Amino acid sequence: PPHGTYNLGRRATDAEVAAWDIDVRPDGTGLPVGQGNAIDGEALFTEHCAACHGDFGEGTGRWPVLAGGQGTLTNDRPVKTIGSYWPYLSTVYDYVRRAMPFGNARALNNDDVYAITAYLLYLNDVVTEDDFTLSNENFGDIHLPNEDGFKPDDRLEEPEYAGKAEPCMSECKRGPVKVDMRAAVLDVTPDADNGEEVGSGSVD
Amino acid sequence: MGKTDDRRPGGATRRAFMTSALAGGAALAATGRSWAEGDPLITEIQDWNRYLGDGVDAAPYGMPSAFEADVIRRDVPWLTADPVSSVNFTPLHALDGIITPNGLCFERHHAGTALIDPADYRLMINGLVDTPLVFTMSDLKRFPRENRVYFLECAANSGMEWRGSQLNGCQFTHGMVHCVMYTGVPLRTLLQEAGVRTSGKWLLAEGADASAMTRSIPLEKALDDCLVAFAMNGEALRPEQGYPVRLCVPGWEGNMWVKWLRRLEVGDKPWAQREETSKYTDLLENGIARRHTFLMDVKSVITSPSPQAPVTHGKGPLVITGLAWSGSGTISRVDVSIDGGRNWKTARLDGPSLPKALHRFYLDIEWDGSELLLQSRAMDEKGYIQPTKDELRAARGVNSIYHNNSIQTWQVRQDGEVENVEVS
């Protein structure tokens, strides 16, 4: 039957939508029927995940840390993990299912992802029993520690924006301007002769 | 002039400096006593004036002159765990105008560049719509099109500089931005074709690559100025920019511009995907993080002189130039300081002034050879003014990672070399 103004494209079949629409929302919308326990999750994690994320989610090299870091968000160097920072468990299930393991995405079945998610909860001390079973039935009972750690974008209320004042044009600082910090002192800019420099910070 | 400095970091910088130093040396020699008859580049017949050059069949798809070999994307290996989920940087210091050449547009992938034959391409619209639809490339090219010039800036652009001066060159500190003309179909047109239900409030955009990138976009924005684009600067998208189809979300953080776009789902709430919870949320000093920080704020940078573009010509006329942009619209004014922000002069905007696009500015000065502390400060059409880094740090701390749009300082030394510094 015709649709829209141009009647271009065709109706998607139910099977096509099911194949691509695998997203899961915080309210559990999109969760498949299934289950997995943390013990099975440990074995799966060791096989598919630990090479990058470490045996206990501690991360190897610069690969992401998945567990720990609770209570560090106000530290000088916060450790942002599933347990310390992520608001929703749905994101763990969704992201692991859609994009992990890195280089072999979509290799895990739905029950595997429940099991790995259960193990990640165990590594983060959100559940304490190593035989904890996670399923679509009890998924909504689990809340991550930092669920309330987020607020809407209120940047434009910050004083530097809210003012919208005409900026100073002349004699804006008293006395001479001092140089406080130099990039060349750190010397971490890539060089054609030497790619070994390591600076602080990262691109997430 | 013409003295090289081994302390200079950055091979690109060193090569560029030596090239210009050699050129300067030749020019000096040409006007000196060695060639009383005149510059041999003029008085002697040159090869290119005698022998034949390449024919029109030599380069079916042309490349820049070999003398521009340093004008390339560069990456910073220590920033990421591997080069596949990583970023590289546009060579802003070597470009002019407002349009970024396609081959120099910075790249940011989360699972590498997906290679998709347009014949295999499918776009699905599903969720709270009257008719879930599947489009082919051929379908998309039958809808009415628009051409729009927009900047695309990574949310993490300048993110390595929150704690202080770190990377020595505007390519590295500000090069996660590009600006091209996109051709595509308004997202609104495609959504109307499927028929959005009144309960629809949010849109999920999803990529076809192995990261299956997903972001939640307010439906109001989706129906406003977003584009489903298949061309950039007149030709098909580059593979690394989402070939054959990407989403354009003008003025908003680059992560939302989903590449290799394969699905659009209408829903009634945001999805809280990994890239809008774990990533692209901005941690404040009190341990609370902002989420849905979509807008890219008013920003500018002087691209020359800059650490990779030192002053090699000595005293006299000096072109100070740079880029300014704002996710809120057009740039109304750029002020430039040569004394670290004590005094400012309003620069000259030149070229097109388009909303949510890069703007080019110039300040032409007579350089007396003394040390300069160069800064630029942009204002946008909404009246927002680019803040200092100290103002941003006072409001946010140093762990926000994203959305650092603060004023950049370059120190130009008496020898013409330039360094990334912070001043007080």
From TrEMBL, chain B:
Its cofactor is Mo-molybdopterin. SUPFAM superfamilies: E set domains (SSF81296), Oxidoreductase molybdopterin-binding domain (SSF56524). It comes from the Bacteria. Keywords: Metal-binding, Molybdenum, Oxidoreductase. Residues 111-271 form the Oxidoreductase molybdopterin-binding domain. Residues 294-409 form the Moybdenum cofactor oxidoreductase dimerisation domain. It comes from Pseudohoeflea suaedae. One of its GO terms (biological process) is sulfur compound metabolic process. NCBIfam families: sulfite_DH_soxC. The gene is soxC. Its EC number is 1.8.2.1. This is Sulfite dehydrogenase. GO terms for molecular function: heme binding; molybdenum ion binding; molybdopterin cofactor binding; sulfite dehydrogenase activity; sulfite oxidase activity. Pfam families: Mo-co_dimer, Oxidored_molyb.
